[in-house]
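My hope is that you will study the record closing this message with an eye to the fold:
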Amino acid sequence: MTDNSRSTNLKLGIIFMIISTLGFSFMQIFVKLTSGKFTLMQQVFMRNFVMLIICTVYILIKGSSFFGNKRNRKLLCMRSAFGYAGTIFNFYAINNMVVADAGILQRTSPIFVVLIACFIFKEKFTLERFLTLTFSFIGAIFVVRPQFDSRLFPSIVAMTSALSASIAYMCVSRIGKTERTETIIFIFSLFSTVCSFPFIFKDFVMPDLKIFIYLILIGVASSVGQFGLTISYQYANASDVSIFNYLGIVFVVILGKLILNESVSIYSLIGIILIFSMSLMSYLSNTRENNEKKSLK
């Protein structure tokens, strides 16, 4: 791969990661709008069932493979299993502890991604990357302002969710361009839909039209998030783009203000500035590295 191609792929990876975080941020808003009206597993089912329909239609139009290359199926299954587990753990944590606590613990996933990428997959680890991750995490704390007064077990579950999601992201990164985006998401959504189906009939309540639309939008927004995430990790190393996942906190704060009329404090603004600064620093650092490599040739 040429330096120009690598630089272009990094930019595309960052763009799709930002699109992904925006999609998942809308998903969180719609989940909150349906909170208390459906069980956890009913929300999880609708999220994945809508994604499954979207992916199926897309694959039929594009003529892609539903189950991918045989050599990738182990990683595809791992991505599906850990991704589904991460979703369940995340929802459990949100329902059993202070939401702010669960949010900040879930946002440790970029740190896990970098550690897994560096120590298992031997991607380059630098002090600069460590510092940008650390200050992004501090920015997230300013935004969320967790109380950390929740019970220990749900807190451990929230951390496990972040770890599970990180392993799923790394599986996508390892598959790279050898598998189509829609195939990766189809297998994940099929796996999650099948696993969730047996639990949807407990305490089932027929939704009204407004809530039903919100449920569908959970799946639509999640599809945007999954497509963006998968494409991002196919274009760039996980350790290069995972930091931009922190922008999701910024998006949620803004959307919460606009849609749910939630207040934005001075602490949130400080956190937003920190997160944006670290994301920008990470991008400039990667751009500088690519330019230095190019000048040496």
